[in-house]
Specification:
The complex is a heterodimer.
Chain A lengths: L3 E5 L2 E6 L3 E4 L4 E4 L6 H7 L8 H16 L3 E4 L9 H4 L2 H13 L1 E4 L13 E4 L2 E4 L10 E4 L4 E7 L2 E10 L3 E3 L10 E2 L3 H4 L7 E5 L4 E5 L8
Parallel strand pairs in A: 4-5, 5-6, 8-9, 9-12, 10-13
Antiparallel strand pairs in A: 1-2, 2-3, 3-4, 7-8, 10-11, 11-12, 11-14, 14-15
Helix pairs in contact in A: 2-4
Chain B lengths: L11 H4 L10 H9 L6 H11 L3 E5 L6 H15 L7 E4 L3 H17 L6 E4 L5 H9 L4 E4 L1 H8 L4 H4 L5 E4 L9 H16 L4 E6 L5 H8 L8 E5 L7 E4 L17 H10 L3 E4 L3 H14 L6 E4 L5 H12 L5 E4 L14 E5 L5 H8 L11 E5 L3 H15 L13 H14 L4 H8 L10 H13 L13 E3 L5 E3 L2 H8 L10 E6 L7 E7 H4 L7 E4 L2 E9 L2 E6 L19 H11 L10 H13 L8 E8 L2 E7 L4 H18 L3 E6 L4 E5 L6 H4 L7 H9 L1 H13 L11 H7 L3 H11 L4 H14 L2 H11 L3 E5 L8 H6 L8 H17 L4 H9 L1
Parallel strand pairs in B: 1-6, 1-7, 2-4, 2-5, 3-4, 5-6, 8-13, 9-11, 9-12, 10-11, 12-13, 16-20, 21-25
Antiparallel strand pairs in B: 14-15, 16-17, 18-19, 19-20, 21-22, 22-24, 23-24
Helix pairs in contact in B: 3-4, 7-9, 11-12, 14-15, 15-21, 16-18, 16-19, 26-29
The chains are: A alpha/beta, B alpha/beta.
Protein name (chain A): Putative phosphoesterase
GO molecular function (chain A): hydrolase activity
InterPro entries (chain A): Calcineurin-like_PHP, Metallo-depent_PP-like, PdeM-like, Pesterase_MJ0037-like
Chain lengths: 222, 836
């Protein structure tokens, strides 16, 4: 897998095709919207979707933890699909998560889905701020956030192709969601566009690498 | 097992037709006489059969008074005994057909002053009338399979159907063998449990597998207590080829160059239906005809994406004789009587004999007159296909797939539906389900897996105990756990899963303007504001999207994009493919072909070989620095597409570096960086093992198929118009579910259902397997210096085909990214990625 470097506030960040950001100088892995136990949340409402989403998400996380060996992992909120999600974890998954936490320092930021679980609302490190949902910024700040599950649609010779993506400009990095069962919001939707008034870039995820396009190039969604 | 009537020999019944035991009551014979009609032998035969308590399958060509034959027994019984109760249920595949039949029955009922109440019930029936129909049923209820399912899954169903005496099933050839047909068969089995005395009358146009259809119709699923009645054959149709003047194209499927010639034919008839194969083709042909239509003959357009009110207007104008021609897709294939049509023109390949005959039947709804039809080939291969189809019609060489086992996702819906009506015992329900022909061979463990799926999802990891939908009481009966489950279920009944669509609205501000019809969402995502597109016979400008509507205005300019539609293309039928293959090998048959086509085939025989009736011709030749391999398999586009994926995997392994492939109905073309040598090994049958498994798992086709299965089985909810926005946030993308399920629970019942769907429909596995078996030891490999005449058409298709899938998508994205980088757009971003 090839991660793509971007430079913000004098630092280099790697955009990984798995949908996470690695910050080499701090040995920090940043990821957003794990939505663990989303399937059991649906099941409680009557849709018995397969109960393997947490396992699948933790599998992918384990690979990244092994590959990057980060000291710190920042989860940008909505780590659980709802406030009771943690209680519904299968014993095996809970034990696995505990092993991850013992080996790396996890910073759980609170999101709108898992507010009641008591995570921090934001984290600051020099010019970098980490929070669940993007907000107005002070001059010189660079913000990492999740929440929107951005995806972009790119016109190609054989029709449009939609993929989850990063969205960035000089001040913000919007991360795609990392959860196994999470859908997406088109980057052309008003809430995302409002965050990037002067345009930006999207980086579409794929197995081996990310694909870069100007934000304005993403096709108008239906 | 009771003896099955053989499909070839007419049943004992049709031989006794001339000596009816039953006579029409006076009131009825007078009515026939007053109209100047003679009752037809098959109408009496059906009456006879029903009077003697047999289920009856009537196979008769269009125009034979089939519908009246189906209703006569009920009308006669009800004339004598008009006590209020639901006596007869009529089920049609089309809402419009049910409405039309209701109208047609009003005439005899009024003219004979019969005390019979007849009503329709479809998705369009207002709620208050539906409620009334439940408390106070009509004598005859005309409905669709989906509306019947809704009625049956109500707790009151047992009372409602108690007195049911007759079930008329119209156009059953259009339902049997599909998922709608599976659901209907299960509903009939249920009805049999509720009203064991009710007799079934099946009405069908001519079909290939009569024995299978008798099984399907019979109450035990095995052909018991069911008779076959054959109507007399109509006059043989007169079919000709219409070859447009000028050069016969090498490729393409639109047939637009024939527009002027078609218009001339329209002038010679009172009323013509111009049948085409896809909605996109309909739009283009309609525009092409009007370009030449200087005398402004009234010519209209009819296809399934047009708004219902627009379609009804066209149908009314046809019925009133105000039109000279209608350009139509399969939307006009079935049902409704258009007495005025006297000519059918089929543009582009007919794809199958049965389908062509159905379409020919639209002309002259009168048995004794020959219908007049013209076939218009759009390219050289289609000349062969059209000629083969004409032969096939003359030989009554019907095609149609042999029966396939019933779908498990449909069964899952049925099981929950039955639970919503009343608690069921699995042993009893299993016995009942096995009386539906598609499920006659259903294994008990498959049934149990389906029940477990309905119960708690049926996952290997059992964690959903507390979210169970069903519970089992001490006697083993299964109950629904919540009223909420029943409510959710009712919103999701049915087996038709549509691609997401948007309404096309013309002009007007918020809420104003008119709705022209619907187009698929994915087509819209390819358009930018200002683009021109053809829709509903108009040249429109795309303005943008508002909520769930496409806003458009008249007066687009420039090259139009045409709405493309999922599944618009039918594959070539096996029978027709065999005829085409045989024709290629018989130069004596070429004399009817245009000179250009004959010369083309002669040149092929000289430069390479003609594909034989039993061998597989494979050509390889270099061209433009690549090596091409063209295999003349004649198994239809779907089969070729699957074969193409498998062959390229193999070429990859052999080190031939395949670069791409293209599939048509006739051939498969593959191109490679190196010359492929071991052709015989390439086509060995073992490719249907692991290679197939590996490819199927990754294929986008399977994912699409899984989405349908997941919706039908009730795993995820249907999206309803309007409710989409709020729903999108809770719904889970089925592609993601598919990937996760495949990895963690690969034998799950829904994956099994998906694979079965793919094997039977999407991939045409049986055809690939048959072809590979036939080709063993009989591959004729021609290594040529350059492209052969027969290979030219497929090379011209390259670039038009869209090949999608994981790796192909990445290649397309990389190409789009590189294009932008070349143009110098956002070069800092693009180059940083390349350095990574």
């Amino acid at each position: 897998m090839n991660a793509a470097p971007i430079h913000r506030a004098g630092h280099r960040f790697m955009l990984d095709p798995a949908g996470v950001v690695f910050w080499p100088v701090r040995r920090t892995l940043i990821l957003a919207d794990l939505h663990l136990e989303k399937a059991s949340s649906s099941a409680a409402r009557g849709a018995l979707v397969p109960p393997y989403d947490t396992r699948a998400t933790l599998d992918r996380l384990a690979l990244l933890l092994r590959g990057y060996a980060p000291e710190v992992v920042i989860a940008l909120g909505d780590s659980f699909h709802d406030d009771q999600g943690h209680a519904r974890l299968a014993a095996e998954d809970a034990a696995r998560l505990a092993r991850f936490e013992a080996a790396h320092r996890f910073v759980w930021i609170a999101g709108n889905h898992d507010q009641a679980m008591g995570g921090a609302t934001m984290l600051r490190d020099e010019a970098c701020v980490f929070r669940h949902q993007a907000e107005a910024l002070e001059a010189g700040q660079v913000e990492f956030s999740g929440h929107f599950h951005p995806k972009a649609r790119i016109a190609t010779r054989a029709g449009a192709i939609a993929r989850p993506c990063f969205v960035t400009d000089q001040h913000r990095v919007l991360l795609p969601s990392f959860g196994a069962f999470t859908g997406g919001l088109e980057v052309t939707a008003a809430p995302i566009r409002a965050l990037f008034p002067r345009g930006g870039q999207v980086f579409l995820l794929s197995r081996e690498r990310v694909f870069a396009f100007p934000l304005a190039h993403a096709a108008k969604a239906a | 097992m009771p003896a099955l009537p053989s499909p070839t020999a007419p049943s004992r019944y049709s031989q006794e037709v001339n000596k009816p035991k039953t006579f029409l009551p006076r009131r009825f014979s007078d009515w026939f006489a007053a109209r100047g009609w003679a009752v037809r032998p098959h109408q009496i035969a059906v009456l006879d059969s029903v009077t003697q308590g047999d289920n009856t399958l009537l196979i008769a060509p269009t125009g034979g008074g089939k519908t009246l034959a189906g209703f006569l027994p009920s009308l006669i019984a009800l004339a004598d005994d008009p006590r209020p109760r639901l006596h007869t249920l009529y089920i049609s595949p089309l809402k419009a057909l049910a409405t039309d039949i209701a109208r047609n029955l009003e005439a005899p009922i009024a003219e004979m002053a019969l005390p019979i109440r007849i009503e329709t019930r479809t998705g369009d029936t207002p709620a208050n009338r539906r409620a009334r129909q439940r408390s106070d049923p009509p004598h005859i209820l005309l409905t669709t399979p989906e509306s019947l399912a809704l009625l049956l899954y109500q707790p009151e169903a047992a009372d409602y159907f108690t007195d049911l005496a007759v079930i008329v099933l119209d156009e059953i050839h259009a339902l049997a063998g599909t998922k709608r047909g599976d659901q209907l068969a299960l509903c009939l089995a249920r009805l049999h449990a509720l009203a064991p005395a009710a007799l079934r009358i099946g009405l069908s146009a001519t079909i290939a597998h009569q024995g299978a259809m008798l099984n399907w119709l019979s109450p035990d699923g095995r052909g018991g207590a069911t008779r076959l009645v054959l109507g007399e054959a109509g006059a043989a149709p007169e079919i000709g080829l219409l070859i447009a003047p000028g050069r016969m194209p090498w490729s393409g499927h639109m047939g637009l160059m024939a527009a002027e010639a078609i218009l001339q034919q329209i002038r010679t008839a009172r009323m013509t239906i111009v049948f085409v194969n896809t909605r996109a083709q309909a739009e283009l042909m309609f525009e092409a005809l009007w370009r030449h239509n200087d005398e402004t003959l009234p010519i209209a357009l009819h296809h399934g994406s047009l708004d219902v009110s627009q379609r009804r207007k066209v149908e009314a104008a046809m019925a009133a004789g105000r039109l000279r021609a209608v350009v139509a897709t399969s939307s006009l294939d079935l049902g409704i009587d258009w007495a005025a049509v006297d000519q059918v023109i089929q543009v582009a390949a007919p794809k199958g004999v049965s389908r062509l005959m159905q379409r020919l039947g639209r002309a002259n709804h009168r048995l004794d007159e020959a219908s007049r039809a013209l076939l218009v080939p759009a390219n050289r291969f289609e000349v062969l296909e059209c000629a083969a189809a004409i032969e096939g019609v003359a030989a009554l060489d019907l095609d149609g797939d042999p029966p396939r086992p019933g779908a498990l996702d449909v069964l899952a819906q049925h099981v929950l539906g039955c639970a919503c009506a009343a608690p069921f015992h699995p042993d009893e329900l299993y016995a009942e389900v096995c009386r539906a022909a598609p499920y006659a061979m259903l294994a008990r463990h498959d049934f149990d897996d389906v029940v477990r799926y309905v119960e708690d999802g049926g996952y290997a990891l059992a964690v959903y105990e507390r979210y169970r939908k069903l519970f089992r009481d001490s006697e083993g009966f299964m109950h629904v756990r919540h009223a909420r489950i029943v409510r959710q279920f009712r919103m999701n009944i049915g087996t038709i899963v549509e691609a997401p669509v948007l309404k096309v609205r013309l002009g007007g501000g918020r809420g104003g303007g008119i709705t022209l019809g619907e187009i698929e969402e994915y087509f819209v995502t390819m358009m930018s504001p200002g683009d021109t597109f053809l829709f509903a016979g108009r040249r429109l400008v795309f303005l943008g999207i508002r909520e769930t509507s496409v806003m458009a205005a008249d007066g687009g300019t420039g090259e139009p994009k045409i709405p493309a539609y999922v599944g618009g293309r039918m594959p070539l039928s096996t029978n027709l493919a065999n005829r085409v293959r045989a024709m290629l090998h018989e130069p004596a048959q070429w004399r009817h072909f245009p000179d250009q086509v004959r010369e083309w085939l002669e040149l092929q025989a000289w430069r390479s070989s003609l594909p034989g009736p039993d061998d597989l011709l494979v050509e390889t030749f270099p061209r433009g620095g690549r090596w091409y391999l063209v295999a003349y398999c004649f198994e239809g586009r779907q089969a070729h597409q699957a074969l193409g994926m498998l062959i390229t995997r193999r070429l990859e392994r052999f080190g031939d570096q395949p670069l791409g492939f293209v599939a048509t109905d006739y051939v498969l073309g593959v191109w490679c960086a190196r010359e492929p040598h071991d052709i015989a090994r390439l086509f060995e049958e073992d490719m249907l093992g692991d290679d197939l498994e590996a490819w199927m798992a990754e294929s986008t086709m399977l994912k699409r198929s899984f989405r349908n299965v997941a919706v039908i089985a009730g795993l995820i909810e249907r999206t309803h118009p309007g409710g989409e926005r709020s729903r999108r946030q809770v719904s889970i993308n089925t592609d993601l579910i598919y990937d996760v399920l495949r990895k963690h629970d690969p034998t799950h019942i829904l994956l099994r259902a998906t694979r079965a769907d793919a094997a039977h429909g999407l991939v045409d596995l049986a055809r690939i397997a048959g072809m590979l078996a036939r080709a063993r030891g009989r591959i004729t490999h021609r290594r040529l210096k350059r492209v052969s005449p027969l290979a030219v058409p497929v090379l011209l298709e390259i670039g038009r085909e869209q090949i999608r899938g994981g790796e192909a998508e990445d290649a397309l994205l990389a190409e789009a990214e590189a294009l932008l980088a070349e143009a110098g757009i956002e070069d800092d971003v693009a180059s940083s990625v390349h350095l990574a």
